[in-house]
Amino acid sequence: MKETTLKLEDLEIHRLAELTPTMTKAQFDALVASIQEHGQEVPIVTYRGRVIDGRHRVKAMRELKMVTIKAISEDSQMSETDLKIKILDVYENRRHQTPTQKAIMAYRMYAEAKANGEKVSQGYVAERMGTVVKQLGRASTLHKLAGDEIIELLFQGKKLNTGTILQPNNTDSLASLILFFKNKVDNLIDNSEKTTINEDFTDEEIELSNTIIHELTSIHSKRMLTRINTMLYHSIKHSIK
User: Fold this and answer.
1) Based on the structure, what is the number of domains in the chain?
2) Helix or strand (DSSP H, E) at 73
3) Distances in Å between the alpha carbon of 152 and those of 17, 75, 146?
C-alpha cells in the first residue's frame, strides 16, 4: 500500500473504526504529546475515503492544529467482513486487549455478520480475534442479561464490582459477571413474589407490580430486570389513582 498525504479537514471517520476501544484520557494525552514531540510516526488507514484505523491520531493532530496527515489506503474491493477482521487482527494488534475485550469484539463481529446475512462461523471469527467460541458465547449471554451499557463498559476496559463497598471484587470475567447478573435477576424475582418491602400495598398494587416484572422477563430476556429495584414499587404506588 502506497503512503500518501491527506488534508485533516477533509477526513471522515468510518463506522468500522468504532470496532476498537476508545483510548483513555491518559492514553490520548500521551499520544498528543508523542505526536507533538516526534511527529506522526504511523500512517492512518483509509477505506473508500474514510478512516478505519487511526481516529485517535486524527483527533490528536487536529487538536495540535496540524493541516495534513500521512495515510495509506486499504483495498476498496475487500468485503466488509474481511475488512473488519483485518482491522482487529492486524491493525489492532498494536494494542494489548484483555480476553474479555477480544470476546466482545468477536461477539459483535459475528452478530453483525449474521444480521447482514453473511456466512461466517463463530469458530472462524473467534479464532481470528484471538479467543474461543465459548468466550464468544459468554459475551452473548452477558449482553442478553445486562444490556448494551455493561458490555460497552467492559469493551472499554472497565471492571465491575460484584462484591460490596466494604469487600469489593472488581472483575471483567465474563463467567463471573454472568453468574452475578443471573443472581440479581433471580433475587429480584424472588423478592417480587414474596413482596418483602415494608409498605402497606394493596393487593391490586402487588399484582400489578408482579405482572410487570414477569412481562419484562418474557419480553426483554431478563436484561432489564437487572436495573429494576424496589423503586419500581414506589413508582407503581404513585401511578395508581
Assistant:
1) 3
2) strand 68-73
3) 15, 30, 11
CB of 96 closer than 8 Å to CB of 58: no
Measured over the CA atoms of residue 71, residue 75, residue 76 and residue 79, the dihedral's sign is negative
pTM score of the predicted model: 0.54
Alpha carbon distances (Å) from 156 to 15, 18, 102, 172, 239: 17, 11, 11, 11, 38
CATH code of residue 8: 3.90.1530.10
Length of the chain: 241
Residue 190's pLDDT band, with cuts at 50, 70 and 90, is low
Confidence of residue 71 (pLDDT cuts 50, 70, 90): very high
Residue 177 has pLDDT above 80, yes or no: yes
CA–CA dist 119, 139 (Å, integer)? 20
Residue 182: domain span: 170-239
Question: What residues have CB less than 8 Å from 80, skipping those under 6 apart?
Answer: 16, 116
| Percentage of the chain lying above the pLDDT 90 cut | 27
| pLDDT over threshold 70, residue 216 | no
The H or E element spanning position 231 is helix 231-239
Q: Which of 160, 185, 202 is the last residue of a domain?
A: 160
C-alpha cell of residue 175:
463467567
The 10s digit of each residue's pLDDT in 101-126 is 889 988 998 998 888 888 889 998 88
